[in-house]
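This entry is listed as follows:

___
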Amino acid sequence: MTVQIVLVHGIRTSATMWRSQLAFLEEAGVPATAVDLPGHGTRIREDFTLHEALHTIDAAVRAAAEQGPVLLAGHSMGGLLSLAYTGGAQKPPVDGLIAASCTALPHGANLATYRLLAGALNSLPDRGLWLAGRVITATIPPENRDDFAAGGYALDAQDAALRSLSTLDLAPAVQRIRIPLWFVNGQYDQLRINEALFQRLAPHAELIVVPRTTHLVTAMRPRVFNAVLRLAIATLEQASPAM
């Protein structure tokens, strides 16, 4: 059976952020699904709730698991949700997990600072879109520069999503994960703040730090991230002799 990939986007963006990875996986003949979380992308008119976000991941994972071993990959908020889901009390049918740009516990000073910055950007006349565009232009390769914005920016869902993340009991969830696990961070990612803690919680996990890269590691270094996908797929294939 072929490894199946489920991709979960970060806050404000949508499934379109995974275009580079989806193209790579299609060329490699690996089935992949990129979901839109509530309040984002094709579901931008919906309210964001933690229950519906986790249900969205669960539905995609269970559909994929009918076809083969599942590799779940999430970026930023999607990575935090994927860690919480995979390490939940009820073990889901996930065989491997890539958690990118998300080694920060989403509460306390970490979350308060992020919400403060997000609120400040939202208060600007264009809600910070000009600044976001300048950052993407300065850091993302031209060929996939439009991917983050292609599905629209979920500005109205942002604060509700951040509040929801604060309710995640993430440390015990990460501790419960026993499947192959990769933490992928950009060298200059602000969400590396609890990186050492996450390594202690999951000592079997592999940490990959991508040099000269910020939070947007999937888009800033797509070939590197695709290589991580290739590594994870090979690991799951090796663990499933019947494949």
User: Anything to note?
Assistant: Residues 222-239 form the longest helix (18 residues). The chain has a mean pLDDT of 90.
